[in-house]
Amino acid sequence: MDSGATVNALQLLDALAWQREHLWNWQWRHFTIGAGWESNTGDWQPAPERFPDGFAPLLATAREAGIKMGIRIRPFLVAADSTLAMQHPEWLLPYERDNAMFVLDVASEEVRQWLTRLAGTLTTEYGFQTVILEDADCLLHCELPEASGLTRTQFYIQGLQAIRTG
């Protein structure tokens, strides 16, 4: 389900119940939360005003209904006004396609470890069975860190490997 910027936990619970009631016989056993669930691109936390109890109620309901949960993330993009951008400006690279966004410097071991923890949180701690990466091609459209000596393809692979490890 594409969550958009205004979706909240109750709307997703309603959609999940509708799916279970109307699509179960059609073998629809997977439900995906679309982009826009986070407090801001780059913070990767459920928006507290829309998900006051986080993902726990939604994931518990899905589990009880026999439905696997997925989530869409934009793991390498960071909004200029995000908490991450303010806390770790040294992790950010200019993004050629959008001046209001940055790309994480996946050549940095610290950034890759952080991404691995992020993916682990989504799968192990929260319990999502599927993590769908959106806009991963942003790694191909940023200024590469000169000191890394990486090609664009190598840079891209490092980012994907960090997520996969988690």
Please explain how this structure is put together.
The chain is α/β, with parallel strands linked by helices and 166 residues long. Helices cover 37% and strands 14% of the residues. It contains five helices and six strands. It has helices at residues 9-23, 56-65, 83-87, 109-125, 152-165, and strands at residues 30-33, 68-73, 77-79, 92-94, 101-104, 130-133. Strands 1-2-6 form a three-stranded parallel β-sheet. The mean pLDDT is 89.
Tell me the layout of helices and strands.
Blueprint: H1 9-23, E1 30-33, H2 56-65, E2 68-73, E3 77-79, H3 83-87, E4 92-94, E5 101-104, H4 109-125, E6 130-133, H5 152-165
Parallel strand pairs: 1-2, 2-6
Antiparallel strand pairs: 3-5, 4-5
Describe the global form: elongated
Task: Report the count of strand segments.
Answer: 6
Biggest sheet overview: 3 strands, parallel
- Over all CA atoms, what is the radius of gyration? 17 Å
> SSE order, as H and E?
HEHEEHEEHEH
H/I helix tally: 5
Structural class: alpha/beta
Strand content of the residues, in percent? 5-15%
Helical fraction equals 25-40%
Query: Which assembly state applies to the chains in this document?
Result: single chain
Task: Give the low-confidence spans.
Answer: none
Strand order of the largest sheet: 1-2-6
Quick recap of the structure?
By secondary structure, this protein is of the alpha/beta class.
Considering the chains and any ligands shown, give keywords for the structure.
5 helices, single chain, alpha/beta, 14% strand, elongated, 166 residues
